[in-house]
Write a structure and sequence with these properties.
The protein is of the alpha+beta class. The protein is about 15% helix and about 40% strand.
């Protein structure tokens, strides 16, 4: 059984996992492999599972996008053990082809149905029975459904499941137990915890779980925010074949950018000795530049803060509305004129979702501003209790805001 007693032990385990993987990544053409093909204008896996690469077009504005379509919702699970004095979580050192630093820590389970149903004929998903079957050692304690990246995926969601184990289970390959105290010390490290683990750490009510502290009821500002969020909005985006797009063309290399969008899809072959299969080919969504995710905070008395949240429109989300950070600028979007006067109190660089994206980089910043900071009509200040209430809701918050919650 592996238990990390320090950050240094986590570092060593991450490096050991990366070394043992004998990882390599190289670009190939569609004709160099047989797992993926173009069918009816869609780039898809031969099994029909995993995900598909296609286009999206707005029925009213005719604006088009390059999107990933994955109708099977992803599943993330986190095993927790609570001893008399310590809370432990079971995390995995996860090698992904698109990660900037190859290997990051993820939750206990990070999988899609295509993976845990083993369409790739690979290894079984460890601990799956703790989340999807009856096990006397397991007690489910929280479940929610959450949105994925609304400008990359078309109506994709994730199930986040938290299970309390009555013992420290034996650790499978790439898995390690770590105390919540040690894990919290890594939250401000670049490219160390992956997006899904940050999201799971961010939304869970650790104070309530640890100290049985109930969160106060909704304030008037939160009630107003919810009323604006729930106003009816239609989804005008529709899926279309790649061949219908004007800013991208399909070639033997993948889906090439001809409209200066900064976005493309290319085919890669991966070798990794400690994943479900030892080697595979797949498309990776490529993003040029670096995105910026900003959460503004302001002081409201001694060690009491409020958070500025925004209601944004993202075409890939059902209803197109998503509750997000104060500002969320994707890597390909213009931000030369963007500036906020304030003090950056926390900052990390995050390589996002390396299983689908190649070096999709975002810079996360928490910025302290003056109490009279001027806000837009789609922005709302919320208290810490309001923020916690929102984090406990399903299909409301952007994945960037859930990751940001792990920092604050």
């Amino acid at each position: 059984m592996r238990i990390a007693e320090s950050i240094q032990e986590l570092d060593s385990f991450l490096e050991e996992t990366k070394f043992q993987s004998q990882f390599s990544l190289r670009g190939i053409t569609i004709n160099d492999q047989e797992e993926w093909c173009i069918k009816n204008g869609i780039l898809r896996h031969q099994s029909g599972g995993f995900f598909q690469v296609c286009g999206s077009r707005d029925l009213l504005t005719h604006e088009e996008h390059l999107v990933l379509y994955q109708p099977q919702g992803a599943f993330n699970g986190l095993l927790i053990h609570k001893s008399v004095e310590t809370i432990y979580v079971l995390i995995q050192a996860r090698v992904e082809p698109g990660n900037s630093n190859i290997c990051q820590f993820g939750p206990t389970i990070q999988s899609t149905p295509a993976n845990y149903l083993r369409l790739h004929k690979g290894k079984k998903t460890p601990y799956l029975e703790m989340f999807m079957g009856y096990d006397m050692r397991a007690n489910p304690i929280h479940l929610s459904h959450q949105l994925d990246i609304g400008k990359r995926y078309y109506q994709k969601s994730k199930t986040l499941s938290y299970v309390l184990s009555d013992e420290l289970l034996e650790t499978a390959e790439n898995m390690i137990w770590v105390s919540l105290e040690i894990l919290s010390e890594t939250l401000e490290r670049d490219n160390f915890l992956n997006t899904d683990l940050r999201s799971m750490l961010g939304i869970f009510d650790w104070d309530g779980f640890t100290f049985n502290c109930p969160v106060n009821g909704a304030s008037s500002s939160l009630i107003k925010l919810k009323s604006v969020y729930r106003k009816s909005s239609s989804t005008n985006a529709r899926l279309v074949p790649l061949t219908d797009l004007t800013k991208w063309v399909v070639t033997e290399k993948g889906v090439e950018d001809v409209g200066d969008t900064g976005l493309s899809v290319k085919i890669y072959h991966t070798i990794c000795g400690n994943r479900e299969v030892g080697h595979w080919s797949q498309p990776l969504y490529c993003c040029e530049g670096e995105g910026l995710v900003v959460l503004l905070i302001r002081e409201k008395g001694f060690e009491n803060f409020e958070f500025l949240l925004s209601i944004n429109t993202e075409f890939g989300v059902s209803g197109e509305k998503v509750l997000s950070t104060s500002f969320n600028i994707y890597p390909e979007e213009e931000r030369t004129s963007w500036k906020v006067e304030g003090k950056v109190v926390k900052e990390i660089v995050q390589s996002e979702e390396g299983g689908r994206f190649l070096k999709n980089i975002n810079r996360y910043q928490v910025i302290l501003v003056d109490s009279d900071f001027e806000i837009s009509e789609n922005q709302f200040w919320v208290s810490e209790d309001d923020f916690k209430l929102l984090l406990n809701s399903s299909n409301t918050m952007s994945i960037q805001l859930r990751c940001m919650a792990s920092l604050v």
